[in-house]
Write a structure and sequence with these properties.
Length: 198
């Protein structure tokens, strides 16, 4: 069973609404649903909430480091609580998926995502679960006539209102299949989530 859900993002009020913080948005919504609160844990380099899911401990983590050092927090918590990589779900923003789309996968490459690169380095393996929340790519905006924007600028800006609605919907869709996923019925969870279109 999944024992740790990590939301990726950048700390600080100035980043709260950035596209890069979609992982934080997910774990914040989950913490609210589970009625638990995040507390700063210096030894884990971030904010941690502890919940019960079917009588099992479930940790939620928001790294307090910047995105490219996310593995520091993940590695510290996993080492302390003896959590194996296959029992981790990392929730991330995904440039290669359109807003409103969410996908689950086990392992694979990082797609250039600096948070995943650092987690891979600290765990020594890519074999952990990822929930990828689509935020779209700046080339999509350019195709619609908007001025070109590089990826770094794009992920550190807030989504357009219509995009935000779709991302919020994908987060809700992901929360709806989480029980299936956490119980270990990963194929059914993936099938249900991947069939949802916003």
């Amino acid at each position: 069973m999944t024992k740790l859900i990590v939301g990726l993002g950048n700390p600080g009020d100035e980043h709260v609404e950035d596209r890069h913080n979609a992982g934080f948005w997910f774990v914040d919504a989950l913490a609210k649903q589970l009625n638990v609160r995040f507390e700063t844990e210096k030894r884990f380099h971030g904010k941690v909430a502890k919940a019960k899911w079917h009588d099992e401990d479930l940790f939620l983590l928001k790294p307090g480091t910047f995105m490219n050092l996310s593995g520091q927090a993940v590695g510290a918590l996993c080492h302390f609580h003896k959590i194996a990589p296959q029992d981790i779900l990392v929730v991330q923003d995904e440039l290669d998926l359109k807003p409103g789309t969410a996908r689950i996968k086990l392992g694979g490459g990082t797609g250039g995502h600096n948070g995943l690169k650092d987690i891979h380095a600290h765990l020594g393996t890519p074999d952990y679960w990822r929930l990828r929340l689509g935020i779209g790519h700046p080339r999509d905006l350019a195709a619609e006539g908007a001025r070109p924007m590089d990826v770094a600028d794009y992920v550190l800006r807030r989504p357009l209102q219509e995009e935000q609605k779709k991302i919020d919907a994908s987060i809700q869709n992901s929360l709806q299949i989480l029980d299936l996923f956490l119980k270990g019925d990963t194929q059914a969870a993936m099938l249900e989530l991947h069939s949802k279109v916003n």
